[in-house]
Structure formats: C-alpha cells, structure tokens
Amino acid sequence: MNHTTLNDSRPMRILFAIGMMLFTIAHHCHAQILISDVFSGTNTGSTSLVDTAAIGLGSTANATVGPGYDGTLFVGVSVGFAETMTINAATTSGDFTLGATGLAGVASTFDATKTFTGLSLADSTTYKFTLTDAVGTNLALLSALNFSITQGGTTVVNTATGVGLTGGVAENLATAFSGNTATITFTTPSTLNTTQPLVFDFNGGALASLIGTSVEFTDGSIQAVPEPSTWAMLVMGVAAMGAGLYFKRSAGVKLARVRA
C-alpha cells in the first residue's frame, strides 16, 4: 500500500507567520497612543495659577502652569474672590483642577495652552481625545468646557462654541460626557503639516464662582483609532489560525489512521 507523506512542518510555519502578523498588528495599535495624559509631565510637583480680585470689575492673571502650559484666568465681576487653576504634573499621571475661594465671582474663564514638541498628528488619520473627570466633580458648575488642537497653523479640531455669559454646558465638550468620561473623535486633513508639533488648548468658563468646591480632570489622552481594515485583518488572522489548527489536527488523525 502506498502512503502519502504528510508535511507536518507546513502548518507550523503558517501558524508562526499568522502569530507574527497578529503581534505586529497589536503592537501597531498600541503604539498609536500619541499622548497618554496631556496633563502629565516630567516634574513631580503641583503648579498653580491664582487670580485674586478685590471688589471690582475684571481681573486677569497669566503664568506658566504645570508641565509647560501657558495659563490664563479671568474673573469678570468679583467680591473678594480668588480663582485657582492647578495642573499637577506627576511623572506617572497628571490632573487639572479649577477651584475658588472668597465671597463671590461671576463670569470667570480659564485657558491652558501647551505646545507638545516632538509629537505630531499624521495626515488623513482618525484620532480620539478622551477626557476623564474625578469622582464627584459637578460639570454643571461650568458654563463652557472646550478643547482644540492645531498643528502647523491648521485647526484640526475645535469644540469651542462660546465661553462666558452666553456659554452653555449643552453647547460644548461637556455634552460628550458619559459617566466620568468624554470622548471626541476627529480626523486630520490630508494636507496637514506633519513636521510641526501639535498645540493643545483646554479652556472653559463658569457663570458663578466655584467657592467651596472644585472641578477636576484626572486624565486626557490622544490616540489613533484603528481603521476598519486593521480590524478585518485581525479577524482574518484569528480565523486563519483556527483553520490552521483544525487542519493540523485533521492531518494528524489521518496520519495516525494510515500508520495503524
């Protein structure tokens, strides 16, 4: 009787190739986290900007805050009021806090802008910005909450619709919150200047003072969203691996029968 010689190494080579492909895809997806936390940095302390206003109209304060943010605070109408913006730039995580002390303040705004050197968005790529607030934070204290990203003079995304007395929580970033997390998805243009760093701006306002309480955000990340074709390749890879294991098992059973 003539027995067909089975090549047992071929299925193993196929499985090895598929495994390497899956590893490459998984590594590629993980590597697309552009900024794990926009509020973190290399220093470990907390840096605050305080705008103290006596009885009167209008007060503005500017300073470098946290890990290289240009911060601005404005209080429209105040009575012995002090507003504080703090960015705690720990090495492993960071947070953004807005609070106030004093008697009363109305129509206050905040703005924090940072240029991320050595990082840039890619052309025609979909990204998502995810913002997480601390447990207990009341977003209703804010009249506006926005962020924007520009690169090489091009505005990639801008959620701002109005900050100040006419601002409304229903008109800005706050509408994206589900539980303690908000996610905004945006796609870069094909003409984006990828040699320029990205500039991140985080701003908002409050109609009334935040006396006795604070608004805190514990994390803000920017990462690429895998394209549907990437997920399709991953599914096909898993299916191919399953098929390879099935045929390898079938081939082993047939070989055992022939030898018997």
Describe this protein's structure.
It is a single chain. The model is unreliable at 1-6, 25-31, 162-171 and 229-235 (pLDDT under 50). The protein has helices at 9-31, 228-259; strands at residues 33-35, 46-53, 56-65, 69-89, 94-116, 126-133, 144-151, 154-158, 177-178, 181-187, 198-208, 214-224. It folds into two domains: 9-31 and 228-259; 33-224, Jelly Rolls. With 260 residues, it is an alpha+beta fold. Strand 4 (69-89) and strand 5 form a beta hairpin.
Q: What general form does the structure show?
A: elongated
Number of helices: 2
Structural class: alpha+beta
Could you estimate the helical fraction of the residues in percent? Answer: 10-25%
Q: Describe the biggest sheet?
A: 12 strands, antiparallel
Q: In whole angstroms, how far apart are the ends?
A: 12 Å
Q: What is the fold named in CATH at topology level of the largest domain?
A: Jelly Rolls
